[in-house]
Amino acid sequence: MTSEMQIQDIRVKDGIIVNEDIQRRLERTVKQILVVEDEIIIAEDIQRKLEKRGYAVPVIVSSGEEAVKKTEENNPDLVLMDIVIHGKMDGIEAAEQIRSRFDIPVVYLTAYADEKTLERAKITEPFGYLIKPFKERELQITIEIALYKHKMEKRLKESERKLRESNKWLAAVIESIGDAVIATDPEGTIKLMNPIAEALTGWKQEDALGMPLTTVFNIISEETDKHIENPVTKAIREEIFFGLADHTVLVTKEGMEIPVDIIGSTIKDDRDSIIGIVLIFYDIIERKRIDEALKISKHKRTTL
Description:
- With 304 residues, the chain is an alpha/beta fold.
- Helix content is 45%, strand content 24%.
- The protein has helices at residues 20-29, 40-52, 64-74, 91-102, 115-123, 136-176, 195-201, 205-208, 213-216, 231-238, 285-303; strands spanning 4-7, 10-13, 16-19, 33-36, 60-61, 78-82, 106-110, 128-131, 180-184, 190-193, 218-221, 240-242, 248-251, 257-268, 274-283.
- Strands 9, 10, 11, 12, 13, 14 and 15 form a seven-stranded antiparallel beta sheet that branches.
- Helix 3 (64-74) runs parallel beside helix 4 (91-102).
- The N and C termini lie far apart (116 Å).
């Protein structure tokens, strides 16, 4: 006779206390393997080996079309795919669809491996191969490596996606800044320019990318008419600086001279290594005009 009492997620059945929440979580951690094999004896043998090693085999199919359909329905963690199977769609074609549509790792099973078949199989980027007959331990090792590789691949893709998203945000912010911005690598090679920097220097970003900073950002001292310290060198030495020298002038691509103020800073990674330099600069012609007007006004007041 079965006695059963339920209190939230705790259930007592036949005198055994079962925590259903833990049971559900344990069930979710069991890896689901879809087996695609058209020889029933081999398929059942693979199923027994997998279940013995702690995997779940919810379904076995014998054709490529069924493999794609059941992958969509069951969302397994991995597909063991025989290359030569019944139906119009062979294992390689089915694997290609499973990989591209569902991003589920596929390990190929085959009794032979001729060069032409292997070349076709490689294109689908499988996560492993097993040559029949194989041992139980071989099967487990191949599956675990495939699952780990897929997990790492997903993490990498997610990191790359976040980086692309972050770069888009950064580019949008830099483009919207009202001052000129140029970013370089630690050697001073230009990696980025915003539209204001293009307007002030006279260089288009597509022409400036990959060029040395000193070629595009040609700065001199107005007083001595000589080149002043490379801002990349100063930023690396001081990490951040506000202004290079008094009366700094930017010489544009067309040879026009524009007085500018410059702020420079290093860009560092998580290990505190310098991976680039960012320079922010702006036209101070209007400020110089105001300064000159104030000097003239002050001079007039003192001479009255």
